[in-house]
Specification:
Helix content is 47%, strand content 0%. It is an all-alpha fold.
Length: 110
Amino acid sequence: MSETKRPPKRKANESDGETALLSLVAPRKQQAHRIIQQVLADNAAVTDEKELRKLISAAYPWGQREYHPYQAWCKAVQETFAQPVAHNLPPKRASAKDYADSPLFQEVSE
């Protein structure tokens, strides 16, 4: 007699609701990234971060700013501005830590 294999039991914290939620948020975030990249491409001449954030905020596509669509949007904006190269902004102002190994900041011995 052959035994049929049963699917593994689900853990107590795994539910269809969590899986469905993840599948909804990921496409929203991908769509948000596409919209943000389009705004940045359309406004390539703008280098002021505050102005870019205003333009991106005005492009929010999903009505009220609440729940998971807005969370996905905020995460996409955060990821976009975490990379200065991605939107042609000048790098953030350097600190003394960035130049700790520079000869300028080393003690002079006589």
